[in-house]
Amino acid sequence: MPLGGSTIIEQAVDNLLGSRVDEVVVVVGYRAQELGKKIAKKPVKIVRNRRYRQGMSTSLIAGLNAIDRRAQAVMIALADQPFVESSLIDELLGEFKKHDRGILIPVCQGRRGHPVILSLRYKERLLALRGDVGARQLIEENPDDVLEVPVESDSVNVDLNTPEDYTKLILRLTNITSSDSG
């Protein structure tokens, strides 16, 4: 979907590329060819998930299987969260490295959000996920290993899951732009 002079996925990818993450792996499923074309010239690894209809876990697994074997942690960033800025990503990476916890979750106004960082000591458990689930169960089963990082930006809780979410966002951006010029 268009967003300014770009698209939602391009903005999300650019934010990751502008941060200190070591590698960006983009998992595509639905409309994979179209999405792949949008980011083909960017320095990312594109992984096609042909099993995407079997749930979110298949995308997580496809991404995990594609990361560099030397990686010690993985950041799960959502392509429908284009406003998580590079500086915030860097802040989360810095906090993760400062602590010995295996799971980092940003929190804004009491709500947990994304991107989440997971130590790869959880890799086997993540690879065993099935269906339309992410890492939520793993997080719930390991509360003592969770580091909640308070952030000011509500971007960690703004995702565009539905056409209605997108329409609300565009209206919000239009109102912001209108009030800036008036």
Please write out the topology.
Blueprint: E1 2-3, E2 6-7, H1 8-17, E3 25-28, H2 32-39, E4 45-48, H3 56-66, E5 73-76, H4 86-98, E6 103-108, E7 111-112, E8 116-119, H5 123-127, H6 136-141, E9 146-150, H7 163-181
Parallel strand pairs: 3-4, 6-9
Antiparallel strand pairs: 1-2, 5-8, 6-7, 6-8
Structural class label: alpha/beta
Global geometry? globular
Domain count:
1
Termini separation (Å)? 27 Å
Query: What's the CATH class label?
Result: Alpha Beta
Strand content: 15-25%
What's the pLDDT, averaged over the residues?
85
Q: Specify Rg, calculated over alpha carbons.
A: 16 Å
Uncertain stretches: none
Major beta sheet summary: 5 strands, mixed
| Fourth-level CATH superfamily | Spore Coat Polysaccharide Biosynthesis Protein SpsA, Chain A
Query: Which architecture does the CATH hierarchy give at level 2?
Result: Alpha-Beta Complex
Number of helices: 7
Helix percent band:
25-40%
Give me some keywords for this one:
two-stranded antiparallel ribbon, 7 helices, 40% helix, 182 residues, Spore Coat Polysaccharide Biosynthesis Protein SpsA, Chain A
Condensed summary:
The chain is α/β, with parallel strands linked by helices and 182 residues long.
Question: Care to describe what's here?
Answer:
Strand 1 (2-3) and strand 2 form a beta hairpin. The strands form 3 sheets. Strands 5, 6, 7, 8 and 9 form a 5-stranded mixed β-sheet that branches. Strands 1-2 form a two-stranded antiparallel ribbon. The radius of gyration is 16 Å and the shape is globular. The chain is built from 7 helices and 9 strands. The protein has 182 residues and is α/β, with parallel strands linked by helices. The longest helix has 19 residues, at 163-181. It has a single domain (2-177), classed as Alpha-Beta Complex (Spore Coat Polysaccharide Biosynthesis Protein SpsA, Chain A). The protein has helices at residues 8-17, 32-39, 56-66, 86-98, 123-127, 136-141, 163-181; strands spanning 2-3, 6-7, 25-28, 45-48, 73-76, 103-108, 111-112, 116-119, 146-150.
